[in-house]
UniProtKB/TrEMBL annotation:
<dbReference type="InterPro" id="IPR029058">
    <property type="entry name" value="AB_hydrolase_fold"/>
</dbReference>
<dbReference type="InterPro" id="IPR002018">
    <property type="entry name" value="CarbesteraseB"/>
</dbReference>
<dbReference type="InterPro" id="IPR019826">
    <property type="entry name" value="Carboxylesterase_B_AS"/>
</dbReference>
<dbReference type="InterPro" id="IPR019819">
    <property type="entry name" value="Carboxylesterase_B_CS"/>
</dbReference>
<protein>
    <recommendedName>
        <fullName>Carboxylic ester hydrolase</fullName>
        <ecNumber>3.1.1.-</ecNumber>
    </recommendedName>
</protein>
<dbReference type="Pfam" id="PF00135">
    <property type="entry name" value="COesterase"/>
</dbReference>
<keyword id="KW-0732">Signal</keyword>
<dbReference type="InterPro" id="IPR050654">
    <property type="entry name" value="AChE-related_enzymes"/>
</dbReference>
<feature type="domain" description="Carboxylesterase type B">
    <location>
        <begin position="26"/>
        <end position="529"/>
    </location>
</feature>
<keyword id="KW-0378">Hydrolase</keyword>
<feature type="signal peptide">
    <location>
        <begin position="1"/>
        <end position="15"/>
    </location>
</feature>
<dbReference type="GO" id="GO:0052689">
    <property type="term" value="F:carboxylic ester hydrolase activity"/>
</dbReference>
<comment type="similarity">
    <text>Belongs to the type-B carboxylesterase/lipase family.</text>
</comment>
Length: 564
C-alpha cells in the first residue's frame, strides 16, 4: 500500500481533489437531486463519492436552525471528488483541516461496482465521529475506512461505509431558553438524523441496502448512536437495523438537564458577541459575521461546554428512564469500553481520599456525603484493585498524578462509561435483545504506561488502520514497534465488526479457526459475560462481574445522583 495514495483516497483529507488518482471510467450515480461522478481507486478496487451535501448549508438565516433538506436539483454531472471542509470546532482534531459553517456533507466508500459486482444490496456502516461534541470530522485521517472495506471484500462480506459531518460546539448544540423556545434544539444531532434519512433515500443507488444500515461511533459518536437509539422517546423511524458503540452508549455521558447552567452560558455568549441588548438575541447571533461570532465562541469558557440536552423532542427525557421503560429502538448492538478509560477523565493531584471525595461531589452536584462515602468504600485505595494493571499491584504514581490517581481513574472510568455500558447490556438482555459486550485491553504505541488502555485506543484496531494514517505528528502510529499480535488483534476486531454489519452476528466458524478465540456469547443476565480484546494474551471471554459493588452503586444513582 502506498501511504501517499491512502492520504488522498481514504476518507480523510479535506478540500483536496482525488480525481487525479482515478483511472478508467469514473463511477457515476444518479440520486433524487441529480447525478454525481466519483473516482475509482484501482489500488483498493473501491469507488469514492465524497463531499456530497445532505442538507442545505446551515449559514445565514439557517445558522442555529434545524437542518433543512436539499431543495434543489441539477442537470448534468456534479463532481464528488473533493472532500468538504470539517465543521467549525475547537480542539486538536480540527488542526490541519479546513473548517467552515457550510459543512453538512457526507462521503461514501464502496467496493468497486457496488452491488452489481457483489450480487445484491450491500450492508452499510455509517461512522459518527467523537470529540466531545466540540471537535472532530468525517474527514479525519485517523478514521480511515478504506482498510475495513478492503477487508470486508477479502472476507466475502463486502460492505459500504459512510462518514458524515455534523455541527459542533455552540454551532451544533447551543442551549438556552431562547433556543429551546425556538424549537431549534440539538441541531448537531439533527444533522446526523437528516444524514441517516438521506442514506435511506439514496444508498440503493450506490449498491447499498437501506434495510441493512448499522450506525457506528466512538465516544461522543457512540453517545450520538445511543441518542438515535433513544430518539423521540424510542420511536423507530427505520433508519438503522443495528448499532456499534465504542466508549459511549444510550446513557448520557453528562447531565442532560442543565437549564440554568446553559441559560447563564447563553447570556455570556450573547454579551461577548454584542447581542445581549437586542430584542431577539438569537436572531442577532444568526446575523453576525462568522469571524465575530467564532471569536466569541472560541474562548476558554465557551468553546467546549455545549452538550446535547433534553428538549422534550429528539431527546425526550432522561435516558436512564427510557431504558427502564423499554423506550428505545430494539436492535442488536455491540457495545464496549477500554480497560483504563478513566485515565483520560480523572483529575490529577489526587493524593488523598478527601481530594477524591471533593472531586466526585463537584462532578456530580446531587451527590451527598453519604453516597460519596459509600462509593469510596466500593472503590478502595488499593492499587491491586484499581485500573492500570500494567503497572503492577503496588505502584502509585508520583506528581503530578497523585498517590490515589489509580483509584480516581477507576471511579471516573466507571462513572463515565463502564457502569452505563453494563446497565445497557443488562437492559438489552432483559428485553430479550442481542447485545455483544466487550472490554478492550491493548495499549498502542502512542499511549504511555500511565495512559494504559485509555479512551480512543481501540479505534485504529476496529478500523484496521495498521499504517497509523492520521496519527503522526501528534501521536506515534499505534502499531509502531508492536509485535504481530497487535496487528492480528486488529484483524480480529475489524472482522467482528464486518460480520456484525453483514449479519448481526459476530461469530462464525472461520473466526474460531482463524484466530483461535472462543465463541462470543450474547449478554445474558443469567450468566453475564463479555469478550476481552487483548494482544498480550489470547482474546477471551470473561465474567462481566468485575467491580460489581461499585458499578451497581453508580447505576443505582444514575438518575437521582448523576442526573442521567
Amino acid at each position: 500500500m502506498k501511504l501517499t495514495l491512502l492520504l488522498s483516497l481514504a476518507v480523510g483529507v479535506s478540500s483536496i481533489s482525488i480525481a487525479r488518482h482515478g483511472h478508467g471510467n469514473a463511477p457515476v450515480v444518479t440520486l433524487q437531486n441529480g447525478t454525481y461522478k466519483g473516482v475509482h481507486s484501482p489500488q483498493y478496487d473501491q469507488d469514492f463519492f465524497v463531499g456530497m451535501p445532505f442538507a442545505q448549508p446551515p449559514t445565514g438565516g439557517l445558522r442555529f436552525r434545524n437542518p433543512k433538506s436539499l431543495n434543489a436539483s441539477w442537470k448534468g454531472e456534479r463532481d464528488a471528488t473533493i472532500f468538504s471542509p470539517a465543521c467549525v470546532g475547537y480542539g486538536a482534531s480540527q488542526m490541519g483541516y479546513n473548517v467552515s459553517e457550510d459543512c453538512l456533507y457526507l462521503n461514501v466508500i464502496r467496493p468497486s461496482g457496488g452491488s452489481k459486482k457483489h450480487h445484491g444490496g450491500l450492508p452499510v456502516a455509517v461512522w459518527i465521529y467523537g470529540g466531545g461534541f466540540a471537535q472532530g470530522s468525517g474527514v479525519d485521517l485517523r478514521y480511515n475506512l478504506s482498510f475495513i472495506v478492503q477487508e470486508s471484500v477479502a472476507l466475502g462480506q463486502p460492505m459500504i461505509v459512510i462518514t458524515l459531518n455534523y455541527r459542533l460546539s455552540a454551532w451544533g448544540f447551543l442551549q438556552g431558553d431562547e433556543v429551546r423556545n425556538s424549537g431549534d434544539t440539538n441541531v448537531g444531532l439533527r444533522d446526523q438524523r437528516l444524514a441517516l434519512q438521506w442514506i435511506q433515500e439514496n444508498i440503493g443507488k450506490f449498491g447499498g441496502d437501506s434495510d441493512k444500515v448499522t450506525i457506528w461511533g466512538q465516544s461522543a459518536g457512540a453517545a450520538s448512536v445511543g441518542m438515535h437509539v433513544m430518539a423521540y422517546n424510542g420511536r423507530d423511524d427505520k433508519l438503522f437495523r443495528s448499532a456499534i458503540m465504542e466508549s459511549g452508549g444510550p446513557v448520557a455521558i453528562s447531565d442532560p438537564d442543565r437549564k440554568s447552567y446553559y441559560e447563564t452560558a447563553y447570556q455570556n455568549l450573547t454579551q461577548l458577541a454584542g447581542c445581549s441588548t437586542t430584542p431577539d438575541s438569537l436572531e442577532c447571533l444568526r446575523s453576525l459575521p462568522f469571524e465575530k461570532l467564532n471569536a466569541a465562541i472560541n474562548t476558554t469558557s465557551l468553546s467546549s461546554i455545549w452538550f446535547p440536552q433534553i428538549d422534550g423532542d429528539i431527546i425526550a427525557r432522561h435516558s436512564s428512564e427510557q431504558l427502564k421503560d423499554g423506550a428505545f429502538v430494539h436492535v442488536p448492538i455491540i457495545i464496549g469500553t477500554n480497560s483504563d478509560e478513566g485515565t483520560s477523565f480523572s483529575p490529577k493531584g489526587v493524593n488523598n481520599t478527601e481530594i477524591l471525595k471533593k472531586s466526585m461531589q463537584g462532578s456530580a452536584p446531587l451527590m451527598n456525603a453519604s453516597f460519596a462515602d459509600r462509593v469510596l468504600a466500593a472503590y478502595p485505595d488499593d492499587p491491586a484493585q484499581n485500573v492500570l494493571a500494567n503497572l503492577g499491584p503496588t505502584y502509585r504514581p508520583g506528581s503530578p498524578y497523585g498517590a490515589q490517581y489509580r483509584r480516581s481513574a477507576t471511579y471516573y472510568g466507571d462513572t463515565q462509561f463502564i457502569a452505563s455500558q453494563r446497565l445497557t447490556c443488562e437492559t438489552w438482555s432483559a428485553a430479550g435483545l442481542t447485545a455483544y459486550c466487550f472490554r478492550f485491553n491493548a495499549i498502542p504505541a502512542w499511549a504511555t504506561p500511565l495512559d494504559g488502555a485509555t479512551h480512543f485506543v481501540e479505534v485504529a484496531f476496529a478500523m484496521l488502520n495498521l499504517l497509523g494514517v492520521g496519527y503522526p505528528p501528534v501521536r506515534t502510529p499505534p502499531f509502531e514497534g508492536k509485535p504481530p499480535s497487535y496487528a492480528n488483534l486488529a484483524r480480529l476486531m475489524s472482522s467482528d465488526w464486518i460480520r456484525f454489519v453483514d449479519t448481526g452476528d459476530v461469530n462464525s466458524k472461520a473466526r474460531s479457526r482463524t484466530f483461535g478465540v472462543p465463541h462470543w456469547p450474547k449478554y445474558s443476565l443469567r450468566k453475564p459475560e463479555g469478550f476481552v480484546y487483548d494482544a498480550n494474551v489470547t482474546s477471551h471471554v470473561e465474567p462481566d462481574t468485575y467491580r460489581a459493588q461499585g458499578i451497581s452503586l453508580i447505576n443505582s444513582g444514575i438518575s437521582s445522583v448523576y442526573n442521567r
